[in-house]
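seq/struct pair 1
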Amino acid sequence: MVRSVTCLLVACVISGCGGGSEPRVETFPVSGSLSVDGKPFGPALLSLDSLDGSLPSASAKVSTDGKFALSTYEPDDGAAAGEFKVSLLMDPMAEPFRDIPPLKPASATISKPSEGQGFVLDLTLETSGKVSGSVPSGGAEVVPEAPSVVGLPSAGGI
């Protein structure tokens, strides 16, 4: 009995029972800065979601000086190359706590950097100046419409 249970466990481990994982999309180191109305903005939670849904989302904790490094699968592993909707949420764990103002829609484009280099994504968002409806708990989401923000490959890597 013990032998058959052991064989069953070994077979499960070898065959990967528990489900397979989807193949990972290649990611590139992405760091940058976030500003709102021309001023560094943070703390906040930044999310980049694929405009067409074909790429994994990337996210980052934005520091009080507006700096961030994106993560997709593992901490600071970056993001896939593509076009993304930019969403900004308050960070409930941050000190000092900061509300997210209503923002104009924004998107970002991440390009594959040169070999051995990272990608710098400097996001400049603008407040909309108005609130329509209620702002959901956790902040306001930016919807995927103009203006676009395009990052630049960094000169010396990250």
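seq/struct pair 2
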Amino acid sequence: MKNAKTFFAVLFILTAQLFTSCSPDHDFSTISTKEILTRNQWTVDNYMVQGQNTGMTNYSMIFSSGGTFNVKKDGQIISGSWGSNLNSANEEVINIRLTTSDPSLMELNKSWKILSATTANVVFEVNDAGSVCQLRIKKEY
């Protein structure tokens, strides 16, 4: 009888250990949008206003972790800044500010809502005075 109790006690402890595991408080497999943006160099894949392609493609972009934002257009580098925050709807927003008088690059000076972000591409959207603008960037390889 004593052996049976010991056997079941050991069996219970081993079974409990099987179903109990340590799990991290954070899911480190999820990469933040800031990490995605700052780990890569990007190219504008598509920029659309009201569903119409604007032709803004092949501009290179670099988001630095310190908040610097650079765009390379026709061999010229234009600098600015970027940051992220949550809007009133609790959606992640990226704010871009470039110092330029180039009208096509001034189009980027907006607070962009992030629609999707992967390590391969990021899609932003903004409703600018009734016009829906969508920017898709892809990782440069």
